[in-house]
Design goal:
The complex is a heterodimer of chains A (267) and B (1114).
Chain A lengths: L12 E5 L11 E7 L14 E7 L5 H8 L5 E7 L26 E7 L2 H7 L14 H12 L3 H25 L23 H25 L4 H31 L7
Chain B lengths: L1 H4 L8 H16 L8 H22 L4 H7 L4 H13 L3 H14 L3 H20 L36 E5 L1 H4 L9 E7 L13 H20 L4 E7 L7 E7 L2 E9 L29 H24 L3 H16 L11 H13 L9 H13 L8 E2 L12 H7 L4 E2 L13 H19 L5 H7 L4 H4 L2 E5 L3 H11 L2 H6 L4 H17 L3 E9 L2 E10 L8 E6 L4 H9 L4 E4 L5 E6 L7 H5 L1 H14 L6 E4 L18 H20 L8 E6 L17 E2 L13 E2 L3 E8 L9 H22 L4 E5 L2 E6 L2 E8 L1 H8 E3 L7 E3 L3 H26 L3 H14 L9 H14 L9 H14 L7 E3 L7 H13 L9 E3 L17 H21 L5 H7 L9 E5 L25 H4 L5 H13 L3 E5 L6 E6 L7 E2 L8 E4 L2 E4 L1 H11 L4 E6 L3
Parallel strand pairs in B: 2-5, 6-7, 18-21, 24-25
Antiparallel strand pairs in B: 1-2, 3-4, 4-5, 8-10, 8-14, 9-10, 11-13, 12-13, 15-18, 16-17, 19-20, 20-21, 22-23, 26-28, 26-32, 27-28, 29-31, 30-31
Helix pairs in contact in B: 5-6, 11-12, 11-13, 13-15, 15-16, 18-20, 20-23, 26-27, 28-29, 28-30, 30-32
The chains are: A alpha+beta (267), B alpha+beta (1114).
Chain lengths: 267, 1114
């Protein structure tokens, strides 16, 4: 969000990112580098040590980028996202052999966190970047991805059990944090942790619909018993006419649209 | 109603009275004035005004709001609306009638032109010299095929200017419908040119021809009255010469005859003989059809006058005739040899007026509706009608006399001429059926019936399940008549070949096909003499494999054997009977083969009875099946058999799954989502899947199963409140379930193999591999979860791409699948129809990413469900052609598609949706498909992602071209036409990515370029491992990365190249902005798409798969 402000080309360092040593400069993408700044302070992306990289081709991986940037200094961490809206979504990920979120295959935004802030400055004096580390693409990559899905389920079960233990503990901890017991005066604290009242959109929608139907039905019932007094009948007739008129107008506009499309030429 | 409509709004005292009046009015509603009610309307209007004034004060300001809106409508309009609702089906219907009639109305200038032309023509005729023109008879170019029966030295013909020349037919009655039907002009030749005995032996006809031909020659010399002058056969009847002239936009057709009193009409009663052959001693053979020919000419004048007197005053009747004529014209019943034309409609309407079923004062809608209703129940083939009011004419034949000689009877006003003499009884029955259908369509409130009935063209090639075209060849047909015709018919039909052949062939086919067909109709076209027959199958009997004849010891068996020749065999049946019978195909033959049993019967009968060999016949039924037919199977097997086998295996497997009762949560249901489960997949796998012993297929690719394709499905577990509120945890619990299922399955059903994956299980059952995922509604809810951007605190639930995808795959697709599966069971041609349609799209390099498969499925489903304007076809080919036509003509911009399964959506719902659609067209996707299995808060999810407007335009254009190709070649449909339709042009693309054949998925249907893969062996390892499809994965990555700048086209049926089209945006230079710099390079501080780098990217992404990239320079 913080980057939506108009930026000038001069703020960026532009360098060519080559896929492999043999690649021609001409065929390489230009990546755009800049020191990362954010209004929010983030422990995972300290602004003094973080480099923002734009226009990273989709096949690049953390490992392949590591090769590019480690020449200027030790890299602590690399994060790749496809869109700023996902910037703060990055959940804490439990390292897993089996369950990993994949980054969408799109041009990416990268955050390179160096160990030292001096590395950040070093990069701006470069004129050329080393190529990416050898990266699996094409048939090899797809074969690898396919093979990864063929798992030994005993291993997987062990990992799941481990995770669930951890997860349950976490839940337990969260629960304990919520002080749901009544305090001395008998007050129960309702915190933001409990999340308040949740209602999914579909449910709300369904409820609304139901209410509307009920309202309609009630109206209809009312109409059925009406007609005792003359004025009611009059009102009804009036209503009927208004509806008729509305229908007439609808029909007319429909017809107009059809006429415009020369719908009435039979052949 | 009209009188009171305006009144009771204001006058409270009217209420009580009104109910009485309503009753009365209902009684007279049917014969009420509509258009002609000018007088009563005026009265109402004035009454209304006075009342209004009175009540105004009373109402006071109580209803000010209403009043302002009320008063926009005049009393007249209100009347009209009320009236429309009662007299015209609906207001909308009435307005559409008015619009259409306006559209086809002749302009004043056009009328003037015709009148002027007629005057000049008359002048021209009068100036011609009185020449002896008998000599022309021997001229080489003489337009009649018929020759004089005997050289008559006394044959003399002199041109004399006509006694009279007048307009007749639709232009004279102003019931023409603005199509290119001809303007009819009739000439009365002076009596002196004829002898009293000229009605015998075609002499009259020859004289007439000479007369017209002479005029034609002179007209050509003059050359100012119009071009393209020729003498041709009217209604394809070789004994009906007519002079045709094209003048401006009109075709003018000139007939000639004699004054009506010249021949006594009673000479032409059906049973008399008027063709006297020399060698036949006593000529008593009745010549009913020849007689009709002469009678027709002699009664033109009389009938014209009669019709004019009956209807010219009644605009509503004339409008009704016009509407009915349009209805007929759209169905092409009015072309070719003695078709079902306006003349018949008009006469029948007059009959209805005479018997007081219709009153000329009715609205034209009511007249049309009554016509359909009454004609639909008419029995002109059993008990004809007569328009003649006189009873005691000399020698007047009775209706029964007519029935003795003609199939269908409607006698004209003269009492002698059956105007349906040549009408095919089959066509009559077809029209009758269509009438009843029309009523059904009218009564369906869910659709715009007017469009369906009057404005939708249904060309002949879309009307029939099967279509037979026999090349016209006089010699063959002469031979047929020589061999098969009776002596009487040979005289009666002398020189009119077509009706005679028609009678012979149709009789045989009708007998041979019997209950298998609901309609068997000779189809003809103007000025084309090919013998065509359209067949509509009766799904109940058409696929019977056995023709059971009489018991072999009974006398009828002889006749049966004669009719069926050596096909007939004696068989013993299960019930013990031993009868003559024919077996057309084996009981276990594929469905596609059973569909063409009728083809076998027809070709056999044509050969057996008429010696018409296969080369002369084009039989349209299964030409397009080739694109979905298995190439490694000798039989005509389409995708249906393989789908069925897969479904059976799936059902078996899901039973096993549901029986695993000691799982933590019970499995409630296992539902298929793959197109195979609704019979619509183009390439369902063969039952060939197996496990590998080694566990390794080759060095690099691992996996346990070998299969062509895995089939997807979902598992639903019993509800439980224990699922975590966290996506990651949920994933793991699901995986735990997979492991559990796998363990239980292996112990309980060891013959079923199972493979656990982190996000699914694969199960091998009966040589098919299924890929199943557990679904849970909570996933969708969790996907919708997001933190509010406003306060970073509260959780919002909002539909997004991911939640939509989940809902689509987990909820809607299984639902749709079961609906479509049901539809296929109801109409077994549904599946293959969709498969051909999909294949057609694929062939245009439009795969399911650019045009979702579900869109095709739903569009076809709509055609099958709505049952009109034609009933669903039993033959996938016809279904496919109708799909093309639908695609080519449907206006997706203005109309939405409603797929209403079981009529679950009511008219109100649809209306509401439609109003919304019209108002906010921009918020809806280019194709908007609403179905009754959509979730009610979000209609049209099926086409939201794709197709884009550009793809839609392109597909529609391609459909239009395809339809044109089919229309032009329908009577000679062969492999080349099929290839034309299923081969795409490679022009206009920017890049081609050529792929390595080794990695392209092998299919066992004919390939994109109409060559076959070599029969695929399962041990050809790479291609089959776990159903992996490298090209598909490649395309996914390309599209994900470059969707903003390029469109990728690919034919998934074995094609070895991907075509790429850059989007417009690629050429633009943009101002620098950090949010728009993806894929760009900097040039002069501006951004431009870095094409070189992208080409390199493609190489990198498709490493190993790409053979080369070809750049097209433009």
């Amino acid at each position: 969000m913080s980057f939506e402000a108009i930026e000038k080309i001069s703020e960026f360092k532009v360098l060519k990112l080559r896929f492999s040593e043999s690649d021609d400069e001409k065929d390489a993408h230009e990546i755009f580098l800049k020191k990362y700044r954010s209004e929010k302070k983030s422990s995972s992306k300290p602004s003094a040590k973080t480099l923002l990289v734009l226009n990273i081709p989709p096949y690049a991986t953390k490992d392949s980028l590591l090769n590019v940037f480690k020449s200027v200094g030790d890299v602590e961490n690399i994060t790749l996202i496809d869109d700023y809206s996902n910037e703060h979504k990055t959940k804490y990920n439990v390292p897993s052999k089996f369950f990993n979120d994949t980054v969408p295959f799109k041009f990416l935004i990268g955050f390179i966190v160096f160990k030292k802030s001096s590395s950040l400055d070093a990069i701006f004096s470069l004129t050329e970047l080393p190529p990416m580390a050898e990266t699996l693409t094409g048939i090899e990559k797809w074969t690898d991805e396919h093979n990864k899905k063929i798992v030994n389920y005993n291993d997987m079960q062990l990992e799941i059990e481990e995770y669930m233990k951890h997860f349950d503990k976490l839940l337990e901890a969260e629960k304990n944090q919520d002080n749901t017991d009544a305090d001395e005066d008998g007050w129960i604290q309702v915190g933001k942790k409990s999340g308040g009242f949740k209602q999914s959109e579909t449910v709300v929608h369904r409820l609304e619909e139901k209410m509307q139907n009920q309202r309609k039905k009630a109206k209809r019932n009312l109409q059925q018993i009406s007609g005792i007094y003359a004025f009611e009948a009059r009102e009804n007739k009036k209503q009927e006419l208004i509806e008729l008129r509305k229908k007439f107008e609808d029909d007319k506009s429909k017809l107009q649209a059809m006429r415009q499309n020369r719908k009435f030429k039979p052949y | 109603m009209s009188k009171t409509a305006g009144l009771f709004v204001r006058n409270p005292n009217f209420v009580a009275k009104q109910s009485e009046e309503r009753e009365n009015e209902d009684l007279v509603a049917s014969n009420r004035l509509s258009d002609d009610s000018g007088v009563s309307e005026d009265i109402t209007a004035s009454k209304n005004k006075s009342k209004k004034r009175k009540t105004k004060a009373k109402d006071g300001n109580k209803s000010k709001k209403h009043k302002t809106s009320d008063e926009k409508l005049t009393a007249e309009q209100i009347n009209e609306m009320k009236e429309s609702e009662e007299l015209y089906h609906s207001n909308m219907f009435r307005m559409q009638i008015d619009e259409t009639l306006k559209e086809i109305k002749l302009k004043c200038s056009q009328e003037e032109f015709i009148n002027k032309w007629l005057t000049t023509f008359k002048k021209f005729l009068n100036k011609l010299p009185n020449e002896n023109i008998s000599g022309l008879l021997k001229h080489d170019d003489y337009p009649m095929r018929t020759k004089l029966i005997e050289e008559d030295k006394k044959f003399q013909m002199t041109y004399q200017s006509p006694k009279d020349a007048f307009l007749y037919g639709s232009y004279a009655l102003s019931t023409n419908i603005g199509n290119d039907s001809a303007v009819d002009i009739h000439l009365i030749v002076p009596d002196e040119s004829f002898k009293k005995s000229d009605y015998l032996n075609h002499i009259f006809i020859h004289k007439k021809t000479l007369y017209l031909w002479f005029i034609a020659k002179k007209l050509k010399e003059k050359g100012t009255l119009g071009g393209n002058i020729k003498v041709i056969y009217l209604k394809n009847d070789p004994l009906k010469p007519v002079l045709m002239i094209d003048a401006e936009e009109f075709h003018i057709s000139i007939t000639a005859s004699i004054s009506q009193e010249f021949f006594k009409l009673n000479r032409f009663v059906p049973k008399t003989n008027n063709i006297k052959l020399k060698d036949v001693e006593e000529s008593t053979t009745p010549t009913p059809h020849y007689n009709f020919n002469i009678l027709y000419d002699c009664t033109i004048e009389r009938n014209q006058r009669f019709i004019f007197n009956e209807i010219s005053k009644f605009d509503n009747v004339k409008n009704a005739i016009k509407l009915l004529k349009i209805w007929i014209h759209q169905r092409e019943f009015d072309t070719g040899f003695y078709p079902f034309n306006g003349f018949i409609v008009t006469n029948y309407l007059i009959h209805l007026i005479k018997v007081k079923k219709i009153y000329p004062t009715m609205s034209c809608y009511q007249i049309v509706r009554l016509f359909w209703n009454l004609f639909g129940h008419s029995k002109l083939d059993i008990n004809g009608i007569s328009l003649c009011t006189e009873k005691d004419l000399s020698n007047q034949p009775s209706i029964q006399d007519f029935h003795e000689f003609y199939d269908v009877v409607m006698v004209d006003n003269s009492g002698y001429c059956n105007i349906l003499s040549f009408l095919s009884v089959d066509l009559y029955r077809k029209v009758r059926n269509e009438c009843l259908n029309a009523i059904k369509v009218l009564d369906n409130k869910l659709i715009n019936s007017f469009q369906q009935l009057f404005l939708t063209k249904i060309p002949y090639y879309l009307q029939y399940d099967h279509f037979i075209s026999i090349k016209w060849d006089c010699k063959t047909f002469d031979k047929i008549i020589e061999k098969n015709g009776s002596d009487e018919d040979k005289i009666d039909y002398r020189d009119s070949l077509y009706p005679h052949v028609r009678k012979l062939i149709m009789n045989v086919l009708r007998k041979g096909l019997g209950e298998r067909v609901t309609s068997l109709i000779p189809v003809t076209h103007n000025q084309s003499y090919d013998f065509n027959i359209g067949i509509i199958l009766n799904p109940e009997h058409a696929f019977n494999i056995v023709e059971k004849g009489p018991q072999s010891n009974q006398p009828e068996s002889e006749e049966f054997r004669k009719f069926w020749g050596n096909k007939s065999e004696i068989r013993r049946f299960k019930d013990g009977s031993i009868t003559e019978s024919i077996l057309w195909c084996n009981a276990d033959a594929p469905i596609a083969e059973k569909r063409i049993i009728c083809q076998k019967i027809v070709t056999f009968l044509l050969k057996h009875h008429f010696n018409i060999i296969n080369d002369k016949i084009v039989y349209n039924a299964k030409q397009f099946d080739i694109v979905i037919r298995s190439v490694f199977n000798e039989l005509d097997e389409t995708n249906e058999e393989r789908s069925l086998a897969a479904i059976r295996a799936f059902d078996e497997m899901s039973k096993e799954l549901r029986n695993l009762n000691d799982l933590p949560l019970e499995i409630v249901s296992v539902l298929g989502t793959d197109p195979v489960f609704r019979y619509t997949d183009v390439t369902p796998p063969n039952s060939l899947a197996k496990t590998t012993n080694s566990g390794f297929i080759n060095k690099s690719l691992r996996g346990r199963f070998l299969t062509q394709k895995t089939l997807n499905g979902v598992i639903q577990l019993a509800p439980s409140g224990k699922w975590p509120d966290n996506i990651d945890a949920m994933k793991r619990i699901k995986a735990a379930f997979y492991i559990e299922i796998s363990k239980k399955m292996s112990s309980k059903y060891p013959s079923t193999s199972i493979q656990v994956m982190p996000d699914c299980v694969e199960i091998l059952k009966d040589k098919f591999v299924f890929n199943l995922k557990i679904v849970h509604p909570k996933e969708i809810a969790l996907a919708k979860e997001e933190i509010s951007t406003k306060n970073n605190l509260s959780t919002l639930y909002k539909a997004n791409e991911e939640s939509n995808r989940l809902e689509f795959e987990n909820v809607l697709l299984p639902k749709l699948n079961s609906f479509l599966h049901g539809l296929h069971c109801r109409f077994p041609s549904y599946g293959p129809t969709v498969a051909i349609a999909k294949r057609w799209l694929y062939s245009q390099m439009i795969d399911s990413y650019l045009w979702p498969d579900e869109c095709t499925e739903l569009l076809v489903a709509e055609m099958f469900l709505k049952n009109h304007p034609v009933e669903p076809s039993c033959q996938p080919q016809t279904g496919f052609l109708r799909f093309l036509q639908h695609l080519a003509t449907f206006s997706f911009e203005n109309d939405m598609v409603v797929v209403n399964f079981n009529d679950d959506m009511d008219a109100e719902q649809i209306d509401e949706l439609e109003v919304n659609f019209r108002k906010n067209r921009k918020n809806f996707p280019p194709i908007f498909i609403a179905t009754s299995c959509d979730s009610s808060h979000q209609y049209g999810i099926w086409s939201t992602r794709a197709p884009s407007i550009y793809i839609l335009k392109r597909v529609q254009l391609l459909a239009q071209c395809s339809v044109q190709i089919v229309a032009e070649n329908f009577t000679k449909l062969n492999m080349n036409v099929v290839k034309d339709l299923f081969t795409t042009s490679l022009e206009g693309y920017n890049l081609f990515i050529h792929l390595n054949d080794k990695y392209i998925k092998k299919v066992d249907i004919v390939r994109y370029n109409f060559t076959n893969f070599k029969p695929v062996q399962l041990d050809q390892k790479m291609a089959f491992s776990g159903g992996i499809d490298f090209v598909d994965t490649f395309l996914k990555e390309l599209r994900s990365a470059f969707d903003d700048i390029a469109i990728f086209f690919y034919n998934p049926i074995g094609s070895n190249k991907i075509a790429v089209l850059w989007k417009q945006s690629i050429k633009e230079r943009k101002k620098f902005a950090a949010s728009h710099l993806n894929m760009c390079k900097v040039i002069n501080e501006q951004l431009e798409v870095n094409v070189d780098a992208i080409l390199n990217d493609i190489q990198i992404i498709g490493k190993g798969l790409i053979e080369s990239i070809e750049i097209i320079q433009d």
